[in-house]
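DATA SHEET
Item: assembly model
Revision: 1
Owner: S.N.
Input lines:
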Amino acid sequence: MNEILAILSKDLNFKLRRALEIRFDNLMSGIKYRYNTDAPLLRMAIRKGWSLGKIEVVCALNAFYQVILGPLSSSTFADLGTDSPLSRSIKHGNIVITKDNMSQIHDCHITFRQITSELDIDFWSLQANHYDDLIYRLAKPNEEEHE
Amino acid sequence: MNNNDQQWLEKVKAKIRDFANEYKAVYSRDDRALAAYFEIGCFLSLIQFYKNLGFKGQIQNPAKDGSFKYLTTPNGNPNNFSFMLMTSEQESFEIRQQVRIESHIGEFVAFTPDLIVIPKDQKILDKKDIDYASGKRRFFYITSDKVIAAHECKSLIPFPELLISFLGTLLAGHFWYENSKIEEIVDPTGNHLAPALFVGGSARALHLKMVRGLKKAYPINIILGLHAGNFDLLGDHAEIKRIKNPIQ
């Protein structure tokens, strides 16, 4: 397993670790295919400093964001005030969600975004759902091609 | 990998290790919990949509300890779980989770969207069927003529078949769709969010065009990029479709 993914997935269950690996492998096999076929956009990304080793890190972080952190933090974006279900705890089966949980998840999300920003990784490359989108974001980080 | 890249990689590892040490207890959930958090995010976003339009929200039927008891499967009796009552001077309605819809399109056609919006005090029906839990449990449902809007939440990357399948929810879950003048229902000042597919992932450029095509052809919303925090349904870039209450 990729070293970054191994650190991030240490305490996850098998099913989620497998989901991370599958997503990472899919992205990387596409990137390698583009590398072997000398794809112009990938060449452009490499010229901008994104070596294959660095792209592998982005793929690992993309997998973590798409499979774990994105879904988890989805619950933390609403701002509802006192008459919302979140003003109390929410019991979803045996899962209990409180304002404190939400606040911790929100902090986790903010910290992750700060880290990727400090590493000069464009947030939208973590949103890319296909290896070509990811290459595009690395090659042309300022263009608004994708939602 | 050259020296600079190697240094960068070491920096990444150190930062990610610190991050994992600090937050692993926060993010190490199981897959069921991740799906639950996403669905709750969509539910809260829908409540916020109505609040931003001036509706007041009230929790109905809370648990004894005051918590919001979220119905997670259509097997449960909706009357035993919490839901939101939204009210304004103009109308009142309920937002409920996991309530089965019995469709008008044919006998025995029933399905359960993640969220539904129905008029206030709408009775949830029930019956026993020998082919459902051997007739031992009640089959809870509401008929599709009582549905203002049904919404689906998918914590997935969007793909064409997912987008197309939402048309089934529109056709089977909304009696009004085939029995009203749609141009009179779709209204940019309407009080309701048109039936919406909430999707976690962001779309590829080609799929975005498909989303635009579907939204142009049908009174639906396909709301993408929720993992990235795209939850402001009334924001400047939201491009959502609103409807008048179609069953008033």
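QC remark: Chain A touches chain B through 65 residues (CB under 8 Å).
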